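Duplicate of #3305? Posting structure anyway:
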């Protein structure tokens, strides 16, 4: 269903988390394209190296650690987290929330569990959805098939999958990504239920 740019309902923050390998990236793209409520994807800032094909200002704002720290110290972030314990930082800029408001859509944040909980502290009405992989094995397969990460990185990400799954019940909704169309439709139904 194409979305309407005329959405005049209440502003919302939609937070989606899911472990690496849960199939999040595809789901995010589908939701942005198909949600009946316009979803404005917040572009996160990160200090991690850019992967092949990632464009600055599209996939992420790629910042040096110095830039990231100074912008954090100036209070420009809604939340920041060192996601994989590897020294790389990720964060949501407050200006991204403002951009979504100005575009008359919902701010759509794709952040890890630490980030999600910090967002909820600031915006208790934020809608949180946890995307679950159908199994750990499928998650691992998806991580490996990306072919861009070292074994050490893969192991660190798998460890985080376990930690994140343990916190899934704290989200408003949990959706299993067993079948792409089904999962997208389930999330769209949740969005529609909350739109006014
Ligand atoms: P990537 O695979 O792009 O290196 O890392 C993605 C991980 O970082 C995912 O778990 C994703 O949810 C998380 N992430 C991406 N952007 C942000 C952000 O702005 N804040 C937080 N807390 N986590 C983020």
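Output from current build:
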């Amino acid at each position: 269903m194409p979305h309407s740019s005329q959405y005049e309902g209440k502003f919302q923050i939609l937070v989606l988390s899911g472990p690496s390998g849960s199939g999040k990236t595809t789901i995010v793209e589908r939701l942005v394209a198909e949600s009946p409520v316009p979803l404005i994807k917040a572009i996160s800032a990160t200090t991690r190296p850019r992967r092949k094909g990632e464009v600055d200002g599209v996939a992420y704002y790629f910042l040096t650690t110095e830039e990231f720290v100074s912008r954090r110290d100036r209070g420009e972030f809604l939340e920041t987290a060192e996601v994989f314990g590897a020294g790389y930082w990720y964060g949501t800029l407050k200006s991204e929330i403002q951009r979504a408001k100005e575009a008359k859509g919902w701010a759509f944040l794709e952040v890890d569990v630490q980030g999600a909980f910090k967002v909820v502290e600031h915006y208790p009405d934020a809608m949180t959805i946890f995307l679950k992989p159908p199994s750990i094995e499928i998650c691992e397969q998806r991580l490996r098939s990306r072919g861009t990460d070292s074994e050490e990185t893969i192991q660190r990400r798998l460890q985080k999958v376990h930690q994140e799954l343990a916190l899934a019940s704290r989200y408003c909704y949990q959706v299993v990504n067993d079948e792409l169309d089904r999962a997208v439709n389930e999330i769209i139904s949740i969005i529609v239920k909350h739109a006014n």
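Confirmed duplicate; merging threads. The chain has a mean pLDDT of 92. The two ends are 17 Å apart (CA to CA).
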